[in-house]
Design brief:
This protein has about 425 residues and is an alpha+beta fold. It has two domains: about 110 residues, 2-Layer Sandwich (Uridine Diphospho-n-acetylenolpyruvylglucosamine Reductase, domain 3), CATH 3.30.465; about 200 residues, Alpha-Beta Plaits, CATH 3.30.70. The protein is built from eleven helices and 20 strands. The strands form four sheets. Strands 11, 12, 13, 14, 15, 16, 17, 18, 19 and 20 form a ten-stranded antiparallel β-sheet that branches. A five-stranded antiparallel β-sheet has the order 4-5-9-7-8. β4 and β5 form a beta hairpin. It is globular, with a radius of gyration of 20 Å. The mean pLDDT is about 95. The structure holds flavin-adenine dinucleotide.
C-alpha cells in the first residue's frame, strides 16, 4: 500500500479533497482498509469530470490489482479485476475467440469505473457497457468479499452503482464469439435526414456516431459508421453522404484514431481512439444527456435553437444511441435512448452557463445526465428523471447502513 498525492481527475477539472489515496495491490488490502473504518470511495482511472468519486475519507483504487483475466468459453464470460482497462482486456478476450458487445470511445478507462457510471458506446441494439455485467465481486461495508449475480433480487441496482455500495474488485462480463467491424466515416449527411429518418441513420451500422462542432450548418460534420461485417466492403455513398478516405476528430493525429476503411477486430474499431495513443491532453470538460429515442428529433432541434448561446465554449458534440436496459440507475433504464454529448473547452464558468442552457432546452424531454459528466441536477432533479433512484438508494442504505461509501456528490444527488 502507498499514499501518493491524490491529485485531480484526468481532465484536471476536479482536485480531489480526499486526504489519502490507497493504491491497493490485493483484494485483502481493500478489505483491511474498509475494516479500518470509512468513509471510503473507490476511484477508477479518474475519467469522470466531477467530485463523483471524492470523499473526506480515503480513496482506494483497484487499478493496481492483477486483473487475472479469465475467459470461460462454456459460460460465455470473461472475469476480470475491476481496475483493468478495456484496452488491456479486449485483446485477450479476442485472442480466446470472443468479444464484448461494445466499447466506449476510449479504451483507457477502467471497467469498474465505466460500468459504475453507465458508460456506453453507440448502437441501436447495444445496451450500455454495464449491461454485460453478470457477476460483481465487491468488498462490502463490513470488509467482507461478496458476490452478487444477475437474477438475484436487487442485483439491477448494482452494475451502475456509482461506488455507492462497496468497492468492486472483480466483474464477470458476458462475451460472444469474436467479430469484425469496419469503420467508415461519411461527410455531408444532411440534418433533415437525421431529423426525419433517424432509424435509417442510426440503424446504418452496428454502432453509429454523429459529430457536430456547432449543431448548425447543413448537417453533422461527420458520421462514424461501424458496421459488423464478414466482407470487407462499404458503400461510397450513404444516405446522401460520401465516404471520406480518412477522418479525425478534435484535430487528433491520424495515428490516434482507430482503424478506418478496413475490417478490423471489434476492439480496434469500436472505440474512436487507439489504446496506444493519448486522445488529448485532457484540457476539456464533458457533459451528456440521454433522451428517449422517440423524442430525439425534437430534442436535437431544441439544442439547435439554443446552440448560439454556447457556441464559444463547445469544442465538439456527439450523438449516439443506446438500447434500453433494466439496470435501475442506467441512463437508458427502460428507455431506448439517444445520448447528446458535449465536449466543452476547459472553462468551468462558461461551461456552467452552457450546461444551464442545455438543461433548460432538454427539460421537456426528462433528459437524464451521464453520471460521470458535468450536469446541474440536484436530488429533486434526479428524482424527477431517474425513476428508480429511490429504490437504488434503499438498496445502498441496506447494504451500507453506516454510510461508509457515501460521498458528498452522491448526497447532493439524493442517492445516499
Ligand atoms: C476522454 C474521455 C472519453 C470518454 N468517453 C466516454 C464514452 O465514450 N462513453 C461514456 O459513456 N462515457 C465516456 N467517458 C466518461 C467515462 O467513461 C466515465 O466517467 C467513467 O466513469 C470513467 O471510468 P473511471 O474508471 O475513470 O472512473 P472514475 O472517474 O475514477 O470513477 C467514476 C465512478 O465510478 C466509481 N468507481 C470506480 N471504480 C470503482 C470500483 N472499483 N468499485 C466501485 N466503484 C467504482 C467511483 O467511485 C465513481 O463514483 C469519457 C471520459 C473521458 C475523460
Amino acid at each position: 500500500m502507498s499514499s501518493p498525492d491524490v491529485g485531480t481527475t484526468w481532465s484536471g477539472t476536479h482536485r480531489f479533497a480526499a486526504p489519502r489515496l490507497v493504491e491497493a495491490r490485493t483484494v485483502e488490502e481493500v478489505q483491511e482498509l474498509v475494516r479500518a473504518g470509512g468513509p471510503v470511495r473507490a476511484l477508477g482511472t479518474r475519467h469522470s469530470f466531477t467530485d463523483l468519486a471524492d470523499t473526506e475519507g480515503t480513496l482506494v483504487t483497484v487499478t493496481g490489482i492483477d486483473p487475472d483475466i479469465r475467459v470461460d468459453a462454456e459460460a460465455g464470460t470473461v472475469s476480470v479485476g475491476a481496475g483493468a482497462r478495456y484496452g488491456a482486456v479486449a485483446p485477450v478476450v479476442h485472442a480466446a475467440g470472443f468479444a464484448l458487445h461494445n466499447m466506449g470511445s476510449l479504451p483507457h478507462i477502467s471497467i469498474g469505473g465505466a460500468t459504475a457510471t453507465g458508460t456506453h458506446g453507440s448502437g441501436d441494439r447495444n445496451g450500455g457497457l454495464a449491461t454485460a455485467v453478470r457477476e460483481i465481486e465487491y468488498v462490502d461495508a463490513r470488509g467482507e468479499l461478496v458476490t452478487a449475480r444477475r437474477g438475484e433480487p436487487d442485483f439491477d441496482a448494482l452494475p451502475v452503482g456509482l461506488g455507492a455500495f462497496g468497492v468492486v474488485v472483480r466483474l464477470t462480463l458476458d462475451v460472444q464469439p469474436t467479430y469484425a467491424i469496419r469503420q467508415d466515416v461519411y461527410g455531408g449527411l444532411p440534418w433533415g435526414t437525421v431529423l426525419g429518418g433517424l432509424d435509417a441513420v442510426t440503424g446504418g451500422g452496428y454502432s453509429v456516431s454523429l459529430f457536430t462542432p456547432d449543431w448548425a450548418g447543413d448537417g453533422p460534420a461527420l458520421a462514424f459508421v461501424k458496421r459488423r461485417l464478414d466482407v470487407d466492403a462499404a458503400p461510397e455513398e450513404w444516405l446522401g453522404a460520401r465516404r471520406l478516405p480518412q477522418a479525425t476528430i478534435f484535430d487528433a493525429p491520424d495515428s490516434n484514431v482507430t482503424e478506418q476503411g478496413r475490417l478490423a477486430p471489434w476492439f480496434e474499431a469500436l472505440p474512436h481512439f487507439r489504446v496506444d495513443s493519448t486522445p488529448s491532453a485532457g484540457a476539456e470538460i464533458q457533459s451528456e444527456w440521454f433522451v428517449a429515442r422517440v423524442d430525439a428529433p425534437a430534442a436535437i432541434e431544441a439544442v439547435q435553437r439554443v446552440a448560439g448561446r454556447f457556441a464559444g465554449v463547445l469544442l465538439m458534440s456527439e450523438i449516439r444511441t443506446v438500447a434500453a436496459d433494466g439496470l435501475w440507475l442506467s441512463e437508458a433504464y427502460e428507455r431506448d435512448s439517444v445520448a447528446l454529448h458535449f465536449t466543452w473547452a476547459d472553462d468551468a464558468e462558461a461551461v456552467s452557463r452552457a450546461v444551464d442552457v442545455v438543461e433548460e432546452a432538454l427539460a421537456p424531454f426528462a433528459a437524464r445526465p451521464h453520471w460521470g459528466k458535468v450536469h446541474h441536477l440536484d436530488a429533486t432533479g434526479i428524482a424527477a428523471v431517474v425513476p428508480r433512484a429511490a429504490d437504488a438508494r434503499a438498496v445502498f442504505e441496506r447494504l451500507d447502513p453506516a454510510a461508509v461509501f457515501a460521498g458528498p456528490h452522491l448526497q447532493r444527488l439524493g442517492l445516499r
